[in-house]
Sequence to fold (434 residues):
Amino acid sequence: MAAPTLAARSTSGLEFFSLGENEHQAQQVESNCRLVSFSQDGTRLAVCNGQTTKILSFAGSELKEYCQLDHRRTSCCIFSPRGHCVALYQPYVVSKDIPEGTPNMSVYDLRSDAPRLLKAWVQKKQAEWCPQWNEDETVCAKQQGSTVNFFEGTNLDVPAHRLHLDQLKAFSIAPHGQHVACSAAGGKDQPSTVRIFMYPGLERPIASKSFFQADRIDMMWNCRATGLIISCSTETSADSYYGDTSLHYLGTDGEGFSVSLDKKGPVYHAEWSPNGREFCVIYGHMPAKAVLFNTHCEPVFQFGTGPRNIAHFNPHGSLLAIAGFGNLRGSIEVWDVTRKSLVTRVDAPDTTHFMWSPDGERFVTATTTPRLRVGNGSAGFALSVDVYLWQVQDLELSGRVPAQARLLREGTRALGSDVAARQLSSSQAHLRAH
Fold:
């Protein structure tokens, strides 16, 4: 497998670093970069430099410019699952000449030699800007108030179907299949609800679950599109100033379960395993518990307690990183999920961002500005026994600038059974696979 590329955005612009064994030079892509976003397969890249938004394409290891779009204030960007389309959002503004505002959200088709504008909207609420596609991109959906409009193919002018729910808060298209989940806020003495529909039959839901004490609802599909985790939280409660959180499971077969948590305290994090059959939950007052559950919400394995508030599976689901970031000291435990055994422990103090590489053999922790303006950078950890360090020569107020990166051999040591660390200084990081 080719080595993944680390994209670092700092005051010196956008630069790429290889995480391979023999490639360690930095490659500057853009001297000024306000936003960077990769497509899911890593073949396309969107970069906004404050003057225009560029769409770049990878041909092997070579990066080529596909087009430039006249969007200088792009603040959000998302590619469709196969990278055939890109959606751009700019902050909504009005003027005396145009009090209703100008279109600030656009969707382009990227499959021809030049981009083709499919639709431009005036989008006032940023919370509702992001369109969603199904996996094969035959359906695109977008929320507008209490209605979800479904478009088919590249025709974004006239919705093929509509789904209207009173007090609609959010919707989520399953990663596979044709399922759509919607959450609706409750009224006085009325519960909030989550419903699952089968597109295009949107007349009645195939599964539903109701909740009291749910000021906010988050929905997370598993990769098999057979069910979703529902996180319900309140703004405040009698027991906590930060409110209470409860977890539930709702399947497309109509089955629903509540996650029974045996330790009082907040729910910090919940994440599906890539196998779609298990999920990990971090909960309880410190030291928090980490438990693996199945889709019947039954405990499968307990990872003990400790200072942790986040858990991330690698893309293959073979490894699980359990860590404590934010106001915790930054310790990371890596577990072998199959063997249910601890692989290693490492420390990454002051971490503000964590992600696995696409090959599942490395992960990167980052300390970024403006969260921390002193000592920010990123560290990459790989499965090997050699330890390497990328170190920068220049340091500015906003953080480490990877202008002159050099490789230093730190020697050989083992962290746990077979894990060692490679560290790379940067400001903001994104990963892609060739």
Remarks:
- DSSP finds no helices and 40 strands in the chain.
- Confidence is low (pLDDT under 50) at residues 378-434.
- Residues 135 and 176 are 6 Å apart (CA to CA).
